[in-house]
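Record type: monomer structure entry
Structure origin: computed from sequence
Chain ID: A
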Amino acid sequence: IIILVLCVASRAAGLKKNLKDDLSWLDDFDTINPNKPKDTIKNTKICETKECLQVANSYSESINKSADPCIDFYEFACGTWKTKNVKPPYEPVWSRASMWLSLVDQRLRDILQAQPVTEDIFPLRQAKKWYRSCMDV
């Protein structure tokens, strides 16, 4: 939202510049609180787990850097994702959320279709048996 507001404001003022130059002031956020050590914000660890880095990377790869965010922000933010993740014909809509739901559904189906084993906890064994009884038509 901040990027969108900045883009609209710069367009309205007729100051079409490089987006990187428009946002350069964000690098100096640590000067807002003069009592805070300068390197605190830059050294803050936010996303260090493998999973977090994978998700961050997938969002980063979704950006269409050739699109102008001030003209078409959706294309800028999601343009590459749309081309790499074509909507399956059986899905009414296709987004990151629907993609993840589809993956979760498939994983649950795989778990329920597997043979019950003694290592499964009791509720899982029961769920597998009930699933089989419903699917055995």
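Annotation 1: Confidence is low (pLDDT under 50) at residues 12-17.
Annotation 2: The first helix runs from residue 2 to 12.
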